[in-house]
Structure formats: structure tokens, C-alpha cells
Automatic annotation (TrEMBL):
Signal peptide: none annotated. The chain crosses the membrane at residues 39-61, 73-95, 107-125, 137-157. It is found in: Cell membrane. It comes from Halovenus aranensis. InterPro entries: P_starv_induced_PsiE-like. This is Uncharacterized membrane protein, DUF373 family. One of its GO terms (cellular component) is plasma membrane. Its main location: membrane. Residues 1-20 are annotated as: Disordered. The keyword Protease does not apply. Keywords: Cell membrane, Membrane, Transmembrane, Transmembrane helix.
């Protein structure tokens, strides 16, 4: 059965509202709502990134004026902020991948990249003096190492699996 009607302007689209069940219409409305919220989240992350870049530039400028730009802890602070901005970009890209309904593999890649950047950031700013005991610092360092190793292993597995699936798709 063809629901398309012929009008003087040409064929019209079927009236989806009448042909869909209440559940289907509700699902469409909720889907559009979620996509709108995802776009709002992407906008928030883009704004946070822009604010962070401006803030980092101001911090660098102030450090240059005060002469503290040569202090290793100040430079590590810049690196920390820069890596945090990269994490924001990766989260932004992940949200966009959801909005654009990219394939799951792309979303998983973005999540892994975000995790790697976050853990590298933690390793760079790691200070043993921030822990109550040497054992606490050692436990935290070991945990960071395990998480980084696991993320790199996931990235390696994902890239190898992706290569194999790409070969299979080409055949």
C-alpha cells in the first residue's frame, strides 16, 4: 500500500503521524529531545574549551611578566591545563560522535583516547608529597601505571581489530 499522495506540486510524504503508533511517536520525540541535550552538552564543552584556552594564554602571559615562566612547577601547571583542554576536546568529539550517530568503534576510540590523555595528565602532575605516606604514593603510582597499561592495551587491540575488520570488509 502506498501512502504517498500525488499533489499538483508532486508526490507528498506520507502522513507519519497517523500511521505511527503512540510508542513510535513518543520514541521519536524523546530521541529528538536527547539529541537536543547532546547538542547543548557539545556547546557547553566548546565554550569551556574556548574559556580554557583564553585562561591558559593569560596564565602564560602573566608568568612571562612575573618571570616565573622558568619555574618547572609553573610549566607543569601549563602542561596540566593544556592536557585538561585536550580532554575537553576529546569529550566534545565523543558527544558529537553520539549526536552524529557515528559507529560504535569511533566512539570507543574517542573514549580510549580521552582515558589515555587523562592518565598521562595524572602521571605528569603526580607528586609523592601529596600523599600521607610513601606506601600511599606507591599504591597510587602503581594504579596509574596499571590503568595506563590497560588503556594502551585496549588501544592496541582496537587498532588491530579495526585493521582486521577493515581487511574483511575490503574482501
Amino acid at each position: 500500500m502506498n501512502n504517498t499522495e500525488q499533489t499538483p506540486e508532486g508526490p507528498s510524504e506520507p502522513d507519519d503521524t497517523r500511521s505511527r503508533s503512540l510508542e513510535e511517536r513518543y520514541s521519536l520525540v524523546i530521541g529528538r529531545f536527547v539529541q537536543g541535550v547532546e547538542l547543548a552538552a557539545a556547546t557547553v564543552f566548546a565554550a569551556l574549551f574556548a574559556i580554557g584556552v583564553v585562561d591558559l594564554m593569560l596564565q602564560i602571559f602573566e608568568a612571562m611578566q612575573s618571570g616565573s615562566i622558568t619555574d618547572p612547577l609553573v610549566v607543569i601547571g601549563f602542561i596540566d591545563t593544556g592536557l585538561l583542554l585536550l580532554i575537553i576536546v576529546e569529550v566534545y568529539q565523543t558527544v558529537l560522535a553520539y549526536v552524529e550517530e557515528n559507529e560504535t568503534r569511533r566512539i570507543v576510540q574517542l573514549v580510549i583516547y580521552t582515558g589515555v590523555i587523562a592518565m598521562v595528565r595524572k602521571a605528569i602532575i603526580f607528586r609523592t608529597g601529596e600523599y600521607e605516606s610513601t606506601m600511599d604514593a606507591l599504591l597510587a603510582a602503581g594504579s596509574y601505571g596499571i590503568i595506563i597499561f590497560a588503556l594502551v592495551a585496549l588501544l592496541f587491540a582496537e587498532q588491530n581489530y579495526g585493521s582486521e575488520s577493515g581487511l574483511l570488509a575490503a574482501e
